[in-house]
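Practice problem: predict the structure.
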Amino acid sequence: MLHLVVAASSTFLAVGGSHHTVPRAAARMQFSMPKLPNPFGGNEDEQSPSAPPTVGGFVAPPRAERPEFKLELPALPNPFAQELKLSPLDVRFTDVDGDVVTLRPNGGSAVDFYVGNDLRLEKARMVENGGTLEITGKVKKSTPLSMIGFNLEEITTEGVTPRDPADVERAMGLVPY
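Answer:
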């Protein structure tokens, strides 16, 4: 009686009580692509990172440089924008960044904070911190439901440092405490 037992390293042949070890034959198939000449020249074995990639012996053609494309819309004037008209109580100064800042009292200890002609914070609180005015107020953020009046509000603090230290005292004169 003949039995074949397959093991990890060899095949055992058992014939009538005696065991013989026979090395197994490994069938290994290898396939390699034929070596074609490089149509662009150069040595294919020494491929640098800047060289075009090779796939199956073929070299990809070099890519053309694409020009950078920037689309900038012209700055159109806002037909609804109006120049901020100063009232006698307003404090206007230029900060260290070169922005024109206007602070307008808005009842009690609140101020309206303008940068240029844009209202940034309305009914905000203001404190002085080492020559910097810290203005804290609510900013309305639009949502897809803004058309029906649903807006989000976020509390934010902006720091403004006037170029002239005397402007800090004038601004703090707008709030009683």
